[in-house]
Amino acid sequence: VPSPVFQRWLQPALRPIWSRLVALLEGDADTWLARTPAEREQVNLDLRTLAQHDVSARGGTPMSLDGPAPGTAAGLSKVLALLCPDTVPLIDDAAIHFALGAVPRPDSADTPLAGPEHFVPMLDWFAAAVQAAGPELGALARDYALAPLSPAQVLDRLLWFETWGWRVCRQPTPWWWLGEDGREAILPMPGPAPSSARIALPDIADPAWRETARAALDAVHADP
Predict the structure, then answer these.
(1) What is the 3 state secondary structure string of 40-66?
(2) What is the pTM assigned to this prediction?
(3) Residue 9 near residue 19, CB atoms below 8 Å
């Protein structure tokens, strides 16, 4: 990869760290949740080492990159989610806010701030979510014909869409974050491009649009 960050990360002194991380993160949700406290702390230590090495190599100065900053949870997950896709999701700030509430909800995907300290808590949340919804995620994976996906990989993509992707998917129908009376959902609705904020249905001036949106929200929250 023609990137100075990847070049530094692939220096001989750091390669054993990557190898150890992949060995500790390979497998699936059950494998991760069975890791010992010592193994989990080793993951934390290795992630901090990589993040600190990147910052020190840049002299503590932010660097312009195509994609998330490498010293962040998002940057590290970009690599590790590719290598260990059944354990590591994309851990950007939007996902951390959604799952853990540990960082502010971001308005941009271009400047992630969450550090590697959020990585292991996100792995715990992700693995537990995969276990809890395994049959449903497996059914979605089987119905997707364009590429083979595992349940964890389905959840990774759903997590991205629910936390960030809906904001950029505008065709053929834009998606909206709608809420009313304690209920909320991300729903496709025709109309102008919405903001990335939650839209309260009573605040919508167009009565026809409001009622259509309310019916869609009712359908999502209807008892199965």
Answers:
(1) HHHHHHHHHHHHHHHHHHCCCCCCCCC
(2) 0.86
(3) no
* DSSP string over 62-101: ----SSS-TTSHHHHHHHHHHHSTTT-----HHHHHHHH-
Signed CA dihedral, 69, 99, 89, 143: sign only: negative
How far apart are alpha carbons 128 and 32 in whole angstroms? Answer: 10
Which residue's structure tokens are 């690599």? 79
Question: Over the stretch 30-60, which tens digit does the pLDDT of each residue have?
Answer: 999 999 999 999 999 999 999 886 544 444 4
The 10s digit of each residue's pLDDT in 182-223 is 999 999 998 887 788 889 999 999 999 999 999 999 999 987
Q: What sign does the CA torsion over 93, 97, 99, 101 have?
A: positive
Tracing tokens 């949340």 back to the chain, one arrives at 125
**Tokens found for residue 129:** 């979510």
DSSP classification of residue 151:
H
Distance in angstroms (rounded) separating the CA atoms of residues 138 and 19: 29
Structure token digits, residue 7: 């070049």
Q: How many CA atoms lie within 13 A of 193 on its CB side?
A: 7
CB of 73 within 8 A of CB of 122?
yes
32 vs 9: CA distance, rounded Å: 24
∠212-217-222 over CA atoms, to 5°?
125
61: left (phi over 0), alpha (psi -120 to 50) or beta: beta
